[in-house]
Amino acid sequence: MAFDRIAVVGAGAWGTALANVIARAGRTVLLAARHRAAADVLAKRRESPRLPGLQIDTRVEIASVGTELARYDAVLLAVPSQEMRAAAGAIAPSLRDGTPVIACAKGIERGTHRFMTEVIAEAAPTALPAILSGPSFAADVARGLPAAVTLAASDEAVAAALARALGSATLRPYHSTDVRGVEIGGAAKNVLAIAAGIVAGRGLGASADAALVTRGFAELFRFGRAFGARPETLTGLSGLGDVILTCSSAQSRNYSYGMAVGRGDPAQAVLAEGIFTAPVLLEMAKEKGVDMPIASAVADILAGRTSVDAAVEALLTRPFRAEG
Fold first, then answer.
1. pTM for the complete prediction?
2. Helix (H, G, I), strand (E, B) or coil at 255
3. Can you say whether the dihedral through the CA atoms of 280, 286, 290, 293 is positive or negative?
4. What is d(CA 212, CA 192) in angstroms, rounded to the nearest whole number?
5. 286 in active site
6. Could you say which of 44, 189, 286, 288 is catalytic?
7. What pLDDT, on the 0 to 100 scale, is given for residue 89?
8. CA-derived radius of gyration, the chain
9. Which of 12, 184, 210, 198 is nearest to 114 (CA)?
10. Cα(323)–Cα(28) distance, rounded to whole angstroms?
11. Which residues of the chain, if any, have pLDDT below 50?
């Protein structure tokens, strides 16, 4: 099972970084922008405006999305989670039956409560959905700094083959069949990262940050288990690993957005996936009877139903209980 020709759809920071690292692994790579004008600019400058100063590898072909996708063995969809359905539907007519389509977004679709592989399955029925997630910043990956991620597909042989195809000396994918666990870790940690950013932006201190992240991960774990995720996945790269990264660095859009909220100036922050995921996560948690007070506080703050100070007070005055 060889995946020697890889297409990356979505020419933002993450798509560009993935195209670079896959090219360095010796694969034939197409970086496909969803708009022709963007493709033309990238092809001319060989530099993404989202990754200034980092050149696109000369081995990466750049084009706009078209019928040429049929020539590729696997497709990575590096688009925001709420745009995944449109992107998957757009490429569906060009895919060969059984082509792996790998979601590289961390989120849950609003309204439908669908995870990314479910969105792909519905929008591109002939594709084989997979998910790539884990603690990795686009700038680090693009520069060739070491990173490890998880790649999950329902077929273990396919997951392992894809991991080998995408892996290199600087990007180490571990393969898994726990698709849902990988998706949950990536989506839920975005909400937790906003909460951690709020704590930092409010200046509540390192002790509060440690407590918040620990209890927030307990919420993520409960949610994951309720939806069938494996414990080892939730404590692995795509769960705990991603929590450690995105809850501690302003390189994370979710964390930096939370910092702006904590400072009282969210208008200055770049939009983050966790903004859209928070209310969906709460809706799904309620369906399963999962208690998620930190995620609930984030959703209430973002919706303007409560202030940061009131949310903090509410969390600190919850009834005392055994840890678990």
1. 0.94
2. helix
3. positive
4. 8
5. no
6. 189
7. 97
8. 19
9. 184
10. 50
11. none
